[in-house]
Amino acid sequence: MNALKKEKELTGELLVFGSSVLNAVFPIVINSGGRVLPPILFAAISNLIPAMFLFFYLFFTNNLKSLFNKKSLFYLLNIAVFVVILPLLFIFIGTTHTSGINTGIFLNTEIIFAFIICRIVLKEKFVLRKILGAAVITLGAFVVLYNGHLAFNIGDLLIIAGTAFYPIGNIFGKKALEFLKPCQILFARSLIGGSVLLSISFIFEKSFTMPAEMLILNYKYILINAILIFLVSKLLWYYGLKLVDVVKATSIIIATPAFSLIFAYVFLHEIPSIYQLLGCILIIIGLIVSSVMFKKINKYLTKNSSLLKNC
What we know:
Layout: H1 2-36, H2 39-60, H3 70-94, H4 100-106, H5 110-121, H6 128-146, H7 154-163, H8 166-176, H9 182-205, H10 212-217, H11 219-241, H12 246-253, H13 256-268, H14 274-290, H15 292-303, H16 305-309
Helix pairs in contact: 1-4, 1-11, 1-12, 1-13, 2-3, 2-9, 2-11, 3-7, 3-8, 3-9, 4-13, 6-14
């Protein structure tokens, strides 16, 4: 029985790790793809392709009907707005004005806004470790923004602004999970968000006049982002969480910014500056302090303090 449990935990850890690695590729893919494709169109297609796959899955498993009611639509519309439409508009446009390294680092500033929004909306109490974590992440973000001289990059600011919408969407998402399956939420947010982004692209980017050859030539960015990141990584995360606890899962995904640095060096040939490295380290430390993993480590150290003194 213990062997079976360990095997399940290992499977869960591998699934979450796979999700972490794929999410680390996300800033690299959108930074490269956004320079050769209209960024809003790129974001739209990246959502519509997963929606197509999920539609067939939900249709054949008879899980589409429960989406069409007022309660579901209210939450799904808000999730689409705050998890897909608004953040991706800022992030996909922002990354075209900055580096892949900065994109990867600033995507992790979401926790700062999560702390503020949860306090205002959910009336959550201030916890010292969360305040400390948010402060360290903020410091890390400022170090990267500074990067040797005091001049703010519009792309960096757009990405940071984009992450501010995620916590609002996650509040609606958490509530929707009480009566909807993850694949239903993923389908609806991808379909609604992708359709709205496509409309915006047609209006402002005039992408309907774009030659089809441009999409064909850059298909690799679209497929990697749509299939591997927007579909597979999300499914790996959800199924991984079924097999491992949140503490273990959190400890694995904390390494994502470090993976992004490595991928930016390998694929974009971007060498991180000392400020980017320091900022990345500070953000990872802030994520550790803010996470439930820090609470567990602290309990362990307190419990074993007498043992540690004898070492």
